[in-house]
């Protein structure tokens, strides 16, 4: 299908390997479709491990040169990449919405807020400082160097097809690493468009490759190839676990942004309208398909009914439709599997005593659309409380007191984002410290930005993206003992 892009060269049907745009060497391809209607947007090469190996070989060759440039030189290239993304944001948003389904305004928001990671790390490139430490004897000095880890492999998901790339490639390239990226097969077109702009910005040939194709063989090559120093992954905990196991033999560095099961807690002293607004953004943005989504909404007993009523009123206003249509607030889910999971979670909650206050069914729009749904009478035993639903389902669980809700919130193997609304200062500090999560939003439903460390604890992952901490995963610390002085 043709997309009305201002710059048609941003929609490509080739992979970007070692600085070359290539078709499938063996002629194998796969289709990228629009989740709105299943129409085919592009046919892309399904690359085998040999081609991936070639990309890795070249990334390994050029890495020394890239690391050998001054930080300022790398910074200038990254800054140019950022500028080009911002200049092409409308086209990038249209490509993103077409392959992913989210409303155009959200696609733009994703691109702008995540391009900021490239801008940020272009600046941080110049601030990768080591240390000079007094030596153990007067004749010694201890020098601490920060050096790039080397060639990095990145694997990114379909829910943020653009943003999950820039927050990995930005710090990697800033640090002097090179990168091979495997985007999700549902949404590789955003990745390839970013590669077009990276090439234009002057990222050297081979320093950033985008390989498309089946996840498993490419993942295996990443895990087994000795030239890959580090794997950075955003996706499900199951795949993260698999990568960790596969990469164990090579003791590869890992950054993992995995699943979440975010609690969203509303205390009785909260500003209820603000809490509802925060819950709406946190829950229904991207049709509930974000890893930091509110998955379990805990509301203190005395305000639970009022909160639910306000939430139901807001949910009634959500307009479903095609992402490219003006006024659309919720697009289709990514695929049938996602719809089936939502259905399963609703049915499980109903069977165990839950009640539907709004939605609960597939939408009359058909396809992958599901009604935004609010349920009450939810307990910890239900799937909605235990697993990441990744869909527009808001399950409301009422609680008695602080101790009660903290125990429930922490009763999960996940620990990515958490949120709570409260005014009492002592409570704010107590609860923020007690929640087992990498991120806590206090009186807000939105957390991520390039200045803050994004990441999880427990089985939600390893490492942080964004902020001064975000580049550390791409650096090694080397100690040089200068003796005989
Ligand atoms: P989801 O279930 O949300 O699609 P996944 O974790 O399955 O999340 O997918 C996230 C990314 O991981 C995608 O790019 C997908 O292609 C990739 N992926 C899935 N399985 C593997 C695997 N065995 N090895 C490497 N990458 C994988």
From TrEMBL:
Organism domain of life: Bacteria
Coiled coil: none
Pfam families xrefs: Aldedh
Domain spans labelled Aldehyde dehydrogenase: 21-480
Keyword terms: Oxidoreductase
Annotated InterPro entries: Ald_DH/histidinol_DH (IPR016161), Ald_DH_C (IPR016163), Ald_DH_CS_CYS (IPR016160), Ald_DH_CS_GLU (IPR029510), Ald_DH_N (IPR016162), Aldehyde_DH_dom (IPR015590), Aldehyde_DH_Superfamily (IPR050740), Succ_semiAld_DH (IPR010102)
Catalytic residues as annotated in Swiss-Prot or TrEMBL: 257
Keyword Oxidoreductase: yes
Entry-linked SUPFAM superfamilies: ALDH-like
Signal sequence interval, chain numbering: none
Family label: Belongs to the aldehyde dehydrogenase family.
PANTHER family: SUCCINATE-SEMIALDEHYDE DEHYDROGENASE, MITOCHONDRIAL
Listed name of the protein: NAD-dependent succinate-semialdehyde dehydrogenase
Species in which this protein is naturally found: Devosia salina
């Amino acid at each position: 299908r043709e997309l009305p892009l201002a710059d048609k060269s941003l929609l490509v049907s080739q992979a970007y390997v070692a600085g070359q745009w290539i078709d499938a060497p063996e002629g194998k391809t796969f289709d990228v479709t629009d989740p709105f209607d299943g129409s085919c947007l592009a046919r892309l090469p399904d690359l085998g491990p040999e081609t991936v190996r070639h990309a890795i070989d070249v990334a390994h060759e050029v890495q020394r040169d890239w690391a050998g440039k001054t930080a300022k030189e790398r910074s200038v290239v990254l800054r140019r990449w950022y500028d080009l993304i911002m200049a092409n944001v409308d086209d990038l948003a249209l490509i993103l919405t077409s392959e992913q389904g989210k409303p155009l305004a959200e696609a733009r928001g994703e691109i702008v807020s995540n391009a900021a990671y490239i801008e940020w790390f272009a600046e941080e490139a110049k601030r990768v400082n080591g240390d000079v430490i007094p030596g153990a004897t007067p004749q010694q000095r201890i020098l601490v160097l920060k050096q790039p880890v080397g060639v990095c492999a990145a694997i990114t998901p379909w829910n943020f097809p653009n943003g999950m790339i820039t927050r990995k490639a930005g710090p990697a390239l800033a640090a002097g690493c090179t990168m091979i990226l495997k985007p999700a097969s549902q949404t590789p077109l955003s990745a390839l468009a970013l590669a077009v702009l990276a090439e234009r910005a002057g990222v050297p040939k081979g320093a950033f490759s985008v390989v498309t194709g089946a996840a498993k063989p490419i993942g295996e090559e990443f895990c087994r190839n000795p030239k890959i120093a580090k794997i950075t992954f955003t996706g499900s905990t199951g795949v993260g676990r698999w990568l960790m196991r596969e990469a164990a033999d090579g003791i590869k560095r890992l950054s993992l942004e995995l699943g979440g099961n975010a609690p969203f807690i509303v205390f009785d002293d909260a500003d209820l309208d603000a809490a509802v607004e925060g819950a709406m953004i946190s829950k229904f943005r991207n049709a509930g398909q974000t890893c930091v989504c509110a998955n379990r909404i805990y509301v203190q007993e005395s305000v639970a009914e009022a909160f639910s009523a306000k939430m139901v009123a807001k949910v009634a206003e959500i307009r479903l439709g095609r992402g490219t249509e003006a006024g659309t607030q919720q697009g289709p889910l990514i695929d049938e599997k996602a719809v089936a999971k939502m259905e399963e979670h609703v049915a499980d909650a109903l069977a165990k005593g839950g009640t539907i206050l709004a939605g609960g069914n597939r939408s009359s729009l058909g396809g992958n659309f599901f009604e935004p749904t609010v349920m009450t009478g939810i307990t910890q035993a239900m799937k909605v409380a235990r697993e990441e639903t990744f869909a527009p389902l808001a399950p409301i669980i009422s609680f008695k007191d602080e101790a009660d809700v903290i125990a429930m919130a922490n009763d999960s193997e996940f620990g990515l984002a958490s949120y709570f609304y409260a005014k009492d200062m002592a409570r704010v500090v107590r609860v923020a410290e007690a929640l087992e999560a990498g991120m806590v939003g206090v009186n807000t439903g939105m957390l991520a930005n390039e200045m803050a460390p994004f990441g999880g604890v427990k089985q939600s992952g390893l490492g942080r993206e964004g902020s001064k901490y975000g580049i550390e995963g791409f650096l090694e610390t080397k100690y040089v003992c200068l003796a005989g002085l």
